[in-house]
Design brief:
Blueprint lengths: L1 E7 L6 E7 L6 E7 L11 H10 L3 E5 L16 H5 L3 H16 L4 E11 L1 H12 L6 E5 L15 H7 L1 E5 L6 E5 H9 L6 H10 L4 E6 L7 H9 L3 E5 L18 H14 L2
Parallel strand pairs: 3-4, 3-5, 5-6, 6-9, 9-10
Antiparallel strand pairs: 1-2, 2-4, 7-8
Helix pairs in contact: 3-4, 4-7
């Protein structure tokens, strides 16, 4: 197994990425991993997940969204202005860019591309996959957001958001106060139809691209009803009893991976097989 540092061409800014390659020379399936809101590719278990996938013969491409707030320091939010300027459609476009770049990498089987997203990244993976279902073979979500009309839990603050041009959110891990710009709200209002997550699931399933939604029954950030909504749209729902939003994982990553995380990985491997 090897790890490569890559810079992926995207929209107006490139994406910092890591590619975990399995051993061997045969073209490998590729899992593209999209992190969630206030997340980053080096958070908690993502490197561990990528390594385990590579051990099982799947390459894994994990990347930072360009406006997730991470800059030169891989685990520190220093680009707060970019974070403020982020939008849903930008992130969907960047998953599509990672998909295009990943398919073209040497040693990758372009006919076996799996999108994997956590939380908001799950919604972005579904929306990106539905734009070109012929380019993906499956989509897997971990605690995936099923409806963006909740605006990440801030829908009841729209008037304040619009009036002052931003909302402030606290990062529980770092204590930083981070602003979400009104551009995200305006982006949602302009592109509601294109940002319909259940419709994206239906498009993928109708195209023969299976969707698997992994959901912890103890998740209070993205409650189990989101998993049920994805299931109603056609996803295969896998409930992991007692699991929280991160399937027990923390940052920094704990020495012994929790059982819920191992179960999520096993289900992801099952969903990634042809």
């Amino acid at each position: 197994m090897s790890i490569e540092r890559l810079t992926l061409p995207a929209l107006d800014l490139p994406l910092d990425a890591r590619l975990h390659r399995p051993a061997g020379t045969a073209p490998a399936p590729l899992v593209i991993l999209a992190h969630g809101f206030k997340g980053f590719m080096e958070w908690g278990p993502w490197s561990w997940v990528a390594e385990r996938l590579a051990e099982q013969g799947l390459a894994c491409l994990r990347f930072n969204f360009s406006h997730n707030g991470i800059g030169a320091e891989p685990e520190v939010f220093t680009e707060l202005r970019r974070f403020e300027d982020n939008t849903f459609t930008r992130e969907v476009g960047e998953v599509r860019a990672a998909l295009r770049a990943g398919k073209a990498l040497p040693g990758i089987d372009p006919a076996r591309i799996i999108l994997l997203g956590h939380s908001l990244g799950g919604a972005m993976a579904l929306l990106a996959g539905a734009q070109a279902p012929e380019e993906v073979s499956a989509v897997v979500t971990w605690a995936g957001v099923a409806a963006l009309d909740g605006l990440l839990g801030f829908a009841d603050q729209i008037d304040t958001w619009r009036a002052q041009g931003y909302l402030e959110v606290r990062n529980a891990r770092t204590g930083q106060v981070m602003r979400m710009g009104a551009g995200l709200l305006e982006d949602w209002e302009r592109h509601r139809e294109a940002l319909d997550v259940p419709a994206a699931v239906r498009t993928l399933v109708q195209a023969g691209r299976p969707v698997t939604a992994l959901q912890g029954t103890g998740d209070t950030s993205v409650p189990p009803r989101h998993g049920q909504q994805l299931a109603e749209a056609g996803a295969r729902l896998v409930l992991i009893e007692g699991a929280d939003h991160t399937f027990g994982a923390r940052h920094p990553f704990q020495p012994e991976p929790p059982s819920a995380l191992r179960q999520a990985l096993a289900e992801t491997l099952k969903a990634s097989r042809p």
